[in-house]
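Researcher: Please translate sequence to structure tokens.
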Amino acid sequence: MLSLAHLSVIARGSDTAWERARQASYRAGARRAAEQLSRAQAAGDTTAELEALQKRVRQLEEDATSWEDMAQSCMEERDKARDDAATAEALRQDRDYWKNEYLGLSKGGSGRAATVDAWSEIPSLGSDAVLTFEALAKASEEHIVFTARAARAWKDSRYPYPQEMTDRLSALAQAAMDLYSNSGKMPRLAQWFYDNHGLNFAPNDEKLSKDKDKRYFTFNGKRWDGLPHIKVRDAVSPNEVGRIYFALDSKEKRFIVNHVGLHL
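Model: Translation complete:
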């Protein structure tokens, strides 16, 4: 029977090594059962033959039950993730509304319309990302900026979900405004990004950390570390694994995005 540890690994995502081990174990069990049955048949031992068949049936029933439990657990986790994402989006919209109300009042009513229009007019990413990037930089009051490499990466990636990527970039731009508009201690970013903007943030990337040419970049004459990133999709086909890599510029209070597209 599958252990709880094995089931938890599967529920979190694909584990190729464990899957190979499971398949090997399954084949070994089937082979042992076949050998036991063959010996019983050769000896004409009906009792042993029945025992071999019963043992194999029990083993298969246990495996089936384990996989059914795992499938149910995966569906429950999927449903919870969808609910959490919907809640995060609703909270983000509510936050934007009240922020715009505040801006409108603090600027005598003129600021609200301009702020709302700036975000509502962000164009969806096309093959050329420059217009979208410029609109995001303007709407965020330069709290997010983009390198030329980011535009090239997007064009080369052919990411199949441009509107989804546009939405994540908009959320990231608004996150930059929120993060650098507040004084005080820097929050725990992974939790903060998820709770406040529904974004899956990761400060590290094991593979990218070893590739200095892709990890580091130069912007305005200064070298930056582009390891932090937003995960747009995971556990999908390689051509659907979206990523936004960026550096945090605390001095200028902005995010510098250097890659928009597929996982590096």
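Researcher: Any highlights?
Model: The chain has two domains: 4-80, 124-262.
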